[in-house]
Structures are given as structure tokens and as C-alpha cells.
Amino acid sequence: MTSPLEQKKIKIAGPSVVTANRTWDGIVVYRTAAKSWSADLSEAAIVRNSDEAKALLAESVADDVGAIGPYIAPVQVGADGKIEPGNLREQIRRTGVTIGSSVQV
Amino acid sequence: MYAYDEIDRTLVNERVSEFRDQVKRRLSGELTEDEFKILRLQNGVYLQLHAYMFRVAIPYGTLASNQLRALAHVARKYDRGYGHFTTRQNIQFNWIKLAELPDALADLAEVGIHAMQTSGNNMRNVTSDQWAGVAPGEIEDPRIWSELIRQHTTLHPEFSFLPRKFKIAITASDHDRAAIKIHDIGLRLIKNEKGETGFEVLVGGGLGRTPFIGKTIKHFVHGRDILSYIEAILRVYNQYGRRDNIYKARIKILVHELGIEKFSREVEEEWQHIRNSSLQIDDEVIEDIRSRFTYPSYEKLPHNPDELRQAAADPDFEAWRKNSVAPHKVQGYSIVTISLKPIGAPPGDATAEQMDALADLADRYSFGEIRVGHEQNLALPHVAKRDLPALWKALDKLGLATPNVNLITDIIACPGLDYCSLANARSIPIAQELTRRFANHELANLIGRLHINISGCINACGHHHVGHIGILGVEKNGEEVYQITIGGRADEGAALGNLIGPGVKFDEVADVVEDVVEAYLALRERPEELFIDTVKRLGVEPFKERVYATR
């Protein structure tokens, strides 16, 4: 799970989204087709080639007040159109830590 | 405890106002993220996987009860009800909102806590022995010198834009609990033949992707010269340290590439220019700092009080006492380590409720003082032995009396891929599984002292290189793979562990550790031979054979 923050070249192997963290509170968000941000992955704009990815990322980077640290992340799109994270890191960002309750008393 | 003066209070309060304005300008769009990033980092604010992470300094690991309550308040009001104690005497909050950070900082400033020097390429929070001031046989309280360096380096312009972060640790005991040999500068307080206080100075230690054990650069630097000597080291680093490659920017790389002799000569030359300057410390300065540390008014108490003798009949109490209670320099008192490693839980986490309750216990049993150690545990430094049974019962009710200090389930682990944006693999679930595997206290006791350290990436925040058993999570073909090392240690005999073989998958890590431990139990010469000593005696091969024979 190489940190996407270290991505140098934009090269995508399948359907992808742009994700970032919302500026004022830091929560995980996804760039939508309506040029906005959503906390719901199902509302994310899907890109399928490098040119589309570059364009979506450039638009996301420009919205610096809305969200920070945007990058391209892989997703899987089911036959029913359902979007799922494409790797463990993104799964954790979407659904939270994998460690159960934070502290056991 | 150290009592802040007016300068300290003004500095901390001004910092809050400054950051409040910076956040306001960021949220309005007046500052871009590129412009803001260095400012937030200088106030301990990172961006992690799920949210901003806020790292708060606990200088030299000393906390007053009201400060611990303030940390509990931040956890409760601004975060999700818990905090994570790190390997460098900081606490991290994982879910904090940028818009609320100035308020959180303001609340902390009321009790003299801040987040300066917890991130960025500057001089970081100076760390020390969590038993400072109470450990028997200590040269003197190393926090006095830690505080001197803190005052000198805080917001010092020459140390605020270094090639990379810079960490100093100080110990004053023979047994090094501050891991000074894996710091950029390690200081060991000693006396010379005239009985004068000074330091053995080590330089160039560090872990990460290129680990090195620190080397002694000078066997004795007089206390009055320590600031000028540190400054000379930093000037040489500032001049020659690489700024073109983040992976080669730490001082350990410079020391390695120049060689300790040449590096030492450069420092010596620089030092001669500045040692007789205003950096030379008057005794009055040290005495002023010393006078601002307050120490408890200890009572004259018996070495072995009735309460302790009676409680010894309870095997659960005894199990806890043997692992958690250490001798104190004052008769009738003990140092109590509080394990933040309950079975099945993330290492180093504490809830707001636990922090509040512990603050109350500190008031009742430890003169209102709490310590934080780099092993991600806490300590109460001044507990009367007669109070140990009552304290144990209270801690047990809070889930803070797990009798595993220094045993195999007392695991150091970084936040890993569950929280950290740099991580490649998870750390905490590995630690949780290992604590379940070795939950049986009799088994853990049979194994004896054994430190497991886990990092979720090569940056090594879990100090895996110096774990008796070190576990490093990496990524291979999109999967989490873990490399296992054995033989590392972080104390006065610091050493880097050696790899036992190819990496193993997430689900196999606990099995491999069990195999390593079984091999140790079969190979040790006698029950008293610690794991680390068996590895030193036999090397890696017998363990490797055991682990990989059937894999």
C-alpha cells in the first residue's frame, strides 16, 4: 500500500476516484462529478483513463479551500454500479480502523 | 514538577493566538495548504488517513495531574474520547478538527501544555528517563538539563529550519530508559574525576530506513558547556547536512559519511569559536531551573510496611507488584509503572475516563505527578509502599493493572496503517493478536523479559530495529508482509536486530513469533537467561531454522 501521497506519475490501471481530506475538519472526502466533495464514496466521480484522472485531479487540487492532499485512488465498480475501495488503505479510510474498539477497559 | 515562569506562559499563550489567526486565514482561503502546512506542522498538526492528527508535547515525560485532566478534556471535547501515547513522550489525538484546534490549544495552554517541537524539521521535544528524579543511583535529575535545552531550543531560529527533524534524549542512570543511543544526540549525565557534572555525548543514532546506533563524540563535556557543544554539533549539521534528499538528511547519515573522527573534528573546531560565549551556562542559570522543579515532601516510612506484607498473600497483587513496582530513591516509596497494554487492546491508548481517574489517583498517591515513558506506558513516581495495595485495586478497576510490564505483551507499536498516512501495513492488529496469544500470565512470566516492537513502515516509529523481536510491516504486490528481526535492544547495550528470513503474511506473524519464543525456551541455558541473551549467545540461525523448517 504505497502511500498515494508519494505518487509521482499519474497512471491508472482501472477505475479510480480522487480522494482527499476536507479542510475544516479533515474527514475523508471524494471528488464528485458536480465539482464538489462528498463523504460518500458512491457519489464519487469515476475516471477510467489517465487523461480523465489528470483532469479530475487538477480540478481537485485547485479547490484548496475545500479539501487538502487530493490524490487518485483505485476503486472497484461492481456490475450493479456499486463502488468499493480498491485497496486496504482506502478500505480503512472509508470504513475506519480495523482494530475494534479503541481501548478496552 | 517544573513551574513555568512568566516568559514560558507568555510564549505559550502568544503561540495560541498566532495559530488561531493562521487557522482563520487558512479556512478563509487567504493561506493555501502549501503556505499553511509548515505552520500547522510547527504546532503539531499532521494530516493522517482519517483526519488531522494533533501531537502534544510532554517535555521529558513529566505531567501534573491537572495537565493530564486537560489532556482528558481535549480527548473528550475535541476528539473521540481517547489519546495515544507515543514512543517520544508525546500524546496524539487522531480525529481532531482543524477549526477547533485553536480552542484545544488554548485549553491546553491554561495548564502550560503546548504542541511546539512535536513536528517539523526542528529540534523536537527533549525526552528523558521517565524515572528521572526518583531512580536510585541517578547522577542527578536529568530533567533540569532537559529543561535547559528546551528553553534554549524552543523556537530558536537557527534550529527551526534544520535539514530534518532533530531529537535529543538524556539519561542520568546506568540503565538507559530513554533510548539515548537511537537519538540524533544522546546525553548521558556523568561525573568526572573532580566530581563535576557533565555529559558523555553521543551523536548520529537513529532508526528509520537507515538505522544507526549513536557513537560517542566526546567522553566528557562539562555541564556549563553543554549548550555550546550541542550548538556546535547543530551548526556542523546545518552546514553539511543534506537538504536535497529527505532520506539522507538526518545527522546519522552525515556522521556515517564523514566518519565520527572527521565529524568530531569539525564540531571541535566550531565549538572552540563559541564555547566561551554567552552560551556558557552560569551556575545561577542551572540553580534557577533547579529551583523551579518542586519535589515532594516525603515522609519517613518503613521499607516493608504491614499493608504490603498482608497484600503479598494475594497472588494477583504479587504478580502486578513484581512487574510494575520498582525501587525508589527514598525509603518507603516506589515507582509504579502503569501498563497501557491491556490484552487485546491497542498499545499506548488511554481513554479520557482513564486519564481523569489516573489524575485523581496521582493526587491521592503520587503527589499529583505522572510520568510518560517511551515504552508507551505511564508511571506514578512517588507512591508510598503502604499505598500499593489500594492503588492496585483502583488501577485494576480502571483496566490499568495488567501485570505485563517488560513482558512479551508489553508491546511497543506505531499506529500503522489503521491511522498513519505513511504506513504500508497495520501494526496495532498484530500487537492485539500477539497479546492474545501470550495472554496467559504464567506463560509470559516463564518467558521473562522480552520486548516486541512493531512498525508499519520503514520510518520505524515503533522502533522495530531495537526490539528483542522486531516486526516491520511492508507492502509486497499489494499485500501486507512482515519482516521479523531478533536481537535488537534500545538500552545501554543498544543494538540493531538481525533479520531471521523472508517476510511472512499478516496472518502468519503471530505463529512465527510463537515459534521464535518456543525456540528460545528450548535453547536457553537456564530460566534466568533472557531471550536477548540467548540470541546474543547463539545468533539468528537456530531461530531461523525453527521458523522456516516447516514454511
From TrEMBL, chain A:
Lineage: Bacteria, Pseudomonadati, Pseudomonadota, Alphaproteobacteria, Hyphomicrobiales
A Pfam entry, by short name: DUF2849
Taxonomic source organism: Bradyrhizobium japonicum
Annotated protein name in UniProt: DUF2849 domain-containing protein
